[in-house]
Design goal:
This protein is of the alpha/beta class and about 450 residues long. The protein has 17 helices and 15 strands. The protein has two domains: about 190 residues, Aspartate Aminotransferase, domain 1 (Alpha-Beta Complex); about 250 residues, Type I PLP-dependent aspartate aminotransferase-like (Major domain) (Aspartate Aminotransferase, domain 2), CATH 3.40.640. Strand 12 and strand 13 form a beta hairpin.
Length: about 450
């Protein structure tokens, strides 16, 4: 009998060869940390709807959703048509164009905090500009973020994003580290203490549904407390809605929870699955990048070669026009809820200390949490310490499970994934069956 990893090596032999070639081009053979996997990744050649296909045309049900950028699934016809039409009109004008107005207008219609919009090319760029604007507006230097929350990889915000959460990130000067303050997630008392004792805090930034789209979840009550507290101390509140924007609701998490921040960062779904991001917020803050605005005799600069490029604008307009109907996120939420429920029933049947949890369209997977008496169907992540939720899964079991699922036609990241409006009930049924088959293989290997 072959093990899962032996089957994987044999079935995906062409992928192994491609990975070996990639190792001579890219560090670790990949172009994104999240795409690294052991023993090697699979390579995708095309995608459509909820599916994607590999080198030998092997079909996978996809739960990566383009790293969260594809609420409508792969290749929604309206987006494809919009981008194709625009390709013939030009890919980059190096000039203002009508599409950027239409795109920006849709954003201001949907997102409560969006009085003004500035387009960028990624979520990391959006949070970078948000921090700089917060410092410019307040005249203060420090940033308060929550442990485990990810806001891009730039110096000010990468600290504390990954376990071990207190590690130093190479290449960041101590002087920069000193301007980033970390608070435990969901601890309003800790935030209040920091705001009372340190008067040099320019802003508080967080993912409004919690670290990594709910791996460590945050609720609306905490957001309301945070809004009141920051306002009382003259500190700006920034919602990082790069993932949650347009996914949780057409107006993002802020619309769902009815909490309006001072600024919001957007990307992913915003640009219809193409590269693109934005910073939106109060007029008085974003006007600081205006040519007419100066602080200490200087304008805060913000160029960007691909800001609001016509292709991303066309895709974003097509995407947001569908999202504003209010239906796509509801469909994604429904399939995610069913998948979580049915996978947890399987986990309980096998008596494993695993769980699948999440909210909205999120699917968070925790493997080997160590609490054998906690049933997956009864799991409440709000009662668990964040250090047990993010980065605490058994890495060996993660590897074997992921390889087994790929062999069975399911592409799910180690820590889970998310659904789209393209996922069907049949997809969920097939995913649960693949999960059971993979568990049977693991059981045969005496993995549990």
């Amino acid at each position: 009998m072959h093990t899962i990893l032996e089957r994987y090596q044999k079935t995906f032999a062409k992928d192994r060869e491609m990975s070996e070639a990639a190792n001579h081009l890219f560090p670790d053979g990949v172009t994104h940390d999240g795409r690294y996997m052991s023993p090697f990744p699979v390579y995708i050649t095309r995608a459509d709807g909820s599916k994607k296909w590999g080198l030998d045309d092997k079909e996978f049900i996809d739960y990566w959703a383009g790293h969260g950028a594809l609420l409508l699934g792969h290749n929604p016809p309206e987006v494809v048509e919009a981008v194709t039409t625009q390709m013939h009109r030009g890919t980059h004008y190096g000039a203002c164009h009508p599409l950027e107005l239409e795109w920006g207008s849709l954003v201001t219609q949907l997102v409560p905090s969006a009085e003004r919009v500035r387009f960028v090319s990624s979520g990391t760029e959006a949070t970078l500009m948000a921090i700089r604007l917060a410092r410019t507006y307040t005249g203060k230097n420090k940033v308060l973020k929550f442990t485990g929350h990810f806001h891009g990889w730039h110096d000010s915000l990468i600290l504390g994003a990954y376990p071990p959460f207190d590690m130093n990130v190479p290449g960041i000067p101590q002087e920069v580290r000193d301007t980033t303050l970390l608070s435990p997630p969901n601890d309003i008392d800790a935030v209040e203490t920091l705001l009372k004792t340190d008067k040099d805090i320019a802003c508080v930034i967080l993912e409004p549904t919690g670290a990594s789209f709910g791996i460590v979840p945050t609720n609306g009550a905490f957001l309301k407390q945070l809004r009141e507290l920051t306002a009382a101390h003259g500190v700006l509140l920034i919602f990082d809605e790069v993932i949650t924007g347009f996914r949780v609701a057409p107006g993002g998490a802020q619309a769902h929870y009815n909490v309006t921040p001072d600024m919001t960062t957007l990307a992913k779904i915003l640009a219809g699955g193409l590269p693109g991001g934005a910073l939106v917020g109060k007029t008085e803050i974003l006007e600081l990048i205006s040519m007419k605005s100066e602080r200490d005799g200087l304008k805060m600069p913000h160029p960007g070669t691909f800001n609001a490029n016509p292709l991303s604008a066309a895709a974003g307009i097509a995407m947001l026009n569908i999202i504003k109907t209010g239906e796509p996120h509801k469909q994604a939420n429904r399939t995610a809820a069913r998948l979580r429920t049915e996978l947890n029933a399987v986990i309980d049947d096998y008596g494993l200390d695993w769980v699948v949890y999440g909210e909205f369209s999120g699917i968070r997977l925790l493997i080997g949490h160590g609490e054998k008496d906690v049933r997956a169907s009864d799991f409440d992540p709000y009662t668990w310490d964040y250090r047990k939720l993010k980065g605490n899964s058994d890495p060996d079991m993660q590897e074997r499970l992921r390889c087994g699922l790929l062999l069975n036609g399911i592409d799910l990241a180690n820590n889970g994934g998310m659904t789209t409006a393209a996922h069907t009930d049949e997809d969920i049924t097939e995913t649960v069956a693949a999960f059971v088959q993979t568990l049977e293989w693991l059981k045969a290997e005496d993995a549990f």
